[in-house]
Amino acid sequence: AIRPEAVLSHRSCPWGGHLIKLEAKNVFIQNASADPADILVRPEVRAMTPDKHWAALTWRCLEIYGPGDALMEVDNDWCTRLFGVLFGHSVGSTRLHVFQEARTVSRHAVYKDFPEPGDATQVETETIAILRRLPHPSRSRYRLVFVFSTPQDNFPASSLCDQHLPAFTDTYRNFFERVLNGPGFVDVRDLDAKMYLVLSMRAFNRGPPMIPNDDTCSEESFSMSAGEHLGLVSWACFNPGEKFYLSEYMRVFMERLGYQLKIYGVMDGR
Predict the structure, then answer these.
(1) Is 43:108 a contact under the CB 8 Å cutoff?
(2) Which of 32, 112, 176, 261 is the most exposed place for a label (fewest CB within 10 A)?
C-alpha cells in the first residue's frame, strides 16, 4: 500500500513467518531533541510516568538489564489489536504471538547512533523501529521505519484485506505521530536525559587502579596516608593481570565503601 506519507510493504521471512514493514516518510516531532539519537525514551523511564498513558499505551517495568534495556509489560492499544484483524492468525497458543493478547511481556531495548550515527532504534520481540532525522530546516521531521513479523507466512492477499490496507497505513502513521508527540513522551524526555550518570576513565600506564583493602596484613596491600581521614589506609591493585572493566571496578569500589549501587557497563547499546 503506497500513500502520500507512508508505505506498507511485506515479504516472506527467510527464518520463517512473514515480515511487514511500515515506512512513514515525514513524521513531525514537536520539541525534538538537539541530538537526533535521543529522540526515543528508554523503556524503564517510560514506566516512571504511570499517570500518563501514551495514546492508550500503559507500561510497567519488570526488570532492568541496563540503561535502555528492560523487561516490560505493556497493555496493547486498539491500533495493535488492529494488527490481529489484518495480519494475525488463530493457530496454536496465543503466547506464540502478540496480536490477540491484551497484555504482553517482552524485552525492550533502545540503541542510539545505530544503525547509522544520529539514528535511534528500538527493538522488541519480533519488532524493530528506526527513527532518522530528515534534512529539514525545522529539525523536527523524521523518517520512521517499523518492521514486525508474523509467526506464519500467511499474509492476507484477499481483495477485502487489500481495500483496507491504505486506510490502515494512514492510521498507523498517524498513531506513531500521536505517540511521539503525546504529553507522556514530551514531558519525560528531560527526565530521560538526566536519568544516568556516565563515568569514564583515561587509559593508565602504571598498572590497574587501586581499591580499598580490608586485609592490612596482605602482601598485596599498600598503605596510603591520603585516605587516612576517611579510614582508608590499606589499598591493593584491582584484579591485577585480568582484563579491566570500569563498571566492575566501580561496583567493587563502592561496596568497599559500604554502598550498593547499580552500575552498568553498556548504555543504549554502546
Answers:
(1) yes
(2) 261
Cell of 13: 521471512
Confidence of residue 154 (pLDDT cuts 50, 70, 90): low
- If phi > 0 it is left, if psi is from -120 to 50 it is alpha, else beta; for residue 225 that is alpha
Distance of alpha carbon 202 from alpha carbon 215, whole angstroms: 28
For the entire predicted model, the pTM comes to: 0.78
Higher pLDDT, 214 or 112: 112
41-44 long-range contacts (CB < 8 A, ≥24 apart) are 41/110, 41/185, 41/188, 41/189, 41/192, 42/67, 42/68, 42/70, 42/110, 42/192, 42/195, 42/268, 43/68, 43/69, 43/70, 43/72, 43/108, 43/109, 43/110, 44/68, 44/70
Cis peptide preceding 43, ω within 30 of 0: no
52 near 187, Cβ under 8 Å? yes
The candidate with the shortest Cα–Cα distance to 63, out of 265, 266, 262, is: 262
Which of 128-132, 137-141, 147-151 reaches the highest mean pLDDT?
A: 128-132
Would you give the DSSP letter of residue 200?
A: -
Dihedral of alpha carbons 176, 105, 103, 82, sign: positive
Report percent pLDDT > 70 for the chain.
79
